[in-house]
Amino acid sequence: RKEVEQDPGPFNVPEGATVAFNCTYSNSASQSFFWYRQDCRKEPKLLMSVYSSGNEDGRFTAQLNRASQYISLLIRDSKLSDSATYLCVVNRDTDKLIFGTGTRLQVFP
Amino acid sequence: ETGVTQTPRHLVMGMTNKKSLKCEQHLGHNAMYWYKQSAKKPLELMFVYNFKEQTENNSVPSRFSPECPNSSHLFLHLHTLQPEDSALYLCASSRALGRAEGEKLFFGSGTQLSVL
User: What are phi and psi of B26, to 5 degrees?
Assistant: First the structure.
């Protein structure tokens, strides 16, 4: 089983739609969770951390479910500029962050 | 504008060449990393340096040799590479290791490496 698993997509959604991605992780001892965004041929950039209580940043909501070992990212009112690959990141040990393969989102007009 | 700069952006090299990738961070961070990103694969952690001491070598072949002269600079020396080493090599930094907030990574733009 992969340490961090994501549906590669692509998710093709119209502008204004709501879309959600899930990511499962295998290490129950993981403590840190993040979503990164990567545009084509660019470096990954931190989108948001994922806290136990869940967190929201504008149109983006991230949640953590420790019992089922998954994190989610919800994007409301999708914009064309949201088109990118979304990377789920989980820590394995105190100094190792493990990346998923990413979920590709394509928002169309 | 990124606080982590990498050079060169693109590199083509033969299997017998020796080249080096350079990374510099201007964020005052203490930890620096090398990652490899191949097509359709997740980012693979290669090396971790914390306060310029290597803390992680993720079973990377010896043809990749890292160097960290100080907390702001990181190099990846390459020699006798194979075509399968062609990938995007990303440098990253973080404030610290071992604390969730400090683990947030800031990436450079990467070096797209092609080995012929």
Answer: -115, 25
Contacts of B100 in chain A (CB under 8 A): 31-32, 49, 91
Cα–Cα distance list, B81 to A67, B40, B68 (Å)? 44, 21, 21
Q: Give the pair of three-digit tokens for residue B69.
A: 């002269």
At A10 the pLDDT is 94
pLDDT tens for B40-83 read 888 999 999 988 888 877 789 999 999 999 999 999 999 999 99
Nearest CA in chain A to B94: A95
**What are the residues of chain A with a beta carbon less than 8 Å away from any beta carbon of chain B?**
4, 31-32, 34, 36, 42-46, 49, 87, 91, 94-102
